[in-house]
Amino acid sequence: MSVFAAERAVAINAVLQASKVCQKVFKQLVNNETITKKDKSPVTVADFSAQAVVNTILYHSFPNDPIIGEEDTKDLRVESGKELRAKIHSLTNSILDDPLDETTLLDAIDRGSYPGGSQGRMWTLDPIDGTKGFLRGEQFAVCLALLVDGKIQLGVMGCPNLPVDSKVPEGEKGCLFIAEKGQGAFQRKFSSTEETKIQMANISSILEASFCESVEAAHSSHGDAAKIASLLGITKPPIRMDSQCKYCSVARGDADIYLRLPTRDDYEENIWDHASGALLVQEAGGIVSDIYSKPLDFSLGRTLKSNKGVVVSHSKIYSQVIEVVQQVLLKK
């Protein structure tokens, strides 16, 4: 029986509404404005608007729950942020039932400033995970998770550009993924409330496995991943996509392994980049750890301070995967 039924329903609504904001921004701003790669204004508008929408919806139902969000408004509150602020204000109010004035909007965004920790309830939000994917019209995700005493209890992800069925890549797009601790992993369309239980692919050998990895080599070492695949005898080409959509693809069986391999020693992963995805894969039958096979620890603040890298695998082949990951990385 669901312990977090109310939270689940609110989180689904929040992620769906934020996904609508992102779709609207892409349609209005990216398609209608000539943008350069250096111009991040469309993604900035979407990021802030999505965070405002989610934080407002969460606050309405759970006013005492703190939020760990990615964005703050210091650049919006100054005179040079006036034009951007107006766009964010307009877009946010086009989605919310009750319009916000500018001050309330900025305060809603800043509600995401909680430092995190190991005690009590808190939500963690990435309003647009995969900003480059968003700008390309490819994969990005709105990611929301509920933590209680440092443990993930609920995760909801909206993937507006992910095909409902990976076997029909040009078919209907827009998927919502939902996981509650101990309750399984589910997928539904944006266009329907009907949920389908998902689980990882039933593979009998690691030779059948396929990788999912980041598009950006700066986020994860493609060279190390290729070595690992070769040593494991995996010959299928990697599926490359941005954002936590990779977790979703692995959870529903499109791929079997996702590696986020460190590209520099001092990098700490942000908790909002992994919280909802990690729970989804675990509930779908997979294992999620760091490169030392330690579980990810979400109780230490805004980053995974005690972990290095991320290894996501089908439980049947995890021991083989982690052994080769360590063989390749720890020899360096």
Automatic annotation (TrEMBL):
Needed cofactors, names only, are: Mg(2+)
Report the Gene3D superfamilies cross-referenced here: 3.40.190.80, Fructose-1,6-Bisphosphatase, subunit A, domain 1
Statement: the UniProt record of this protein carries the keyword Metal-binding: yes
Q: Which SUPFAM superfamilies match?
A: Carbohydrate phosphatase (SSF56655)
Q: What is its EC number?
A: 3.1.3.7
Keywords of this protein's UniProt record, alphabetized? Answer: Hydrolase, Magnesium, Metal-binding
UniProt superkingdom:
Eukaryota
Under InterPro entries, the record lists: DPNP, Inositol_monoP_metal-BS, Inositol_monoP_superfamily, Inositol_monophosphatase-like, Inositol_monophosphatase_CS
Q: Can you say what this protein is called? A: 3'(2'),5'-bisphosphate nucleotidase
Source organism per UniProt: Funneliformis caledonium
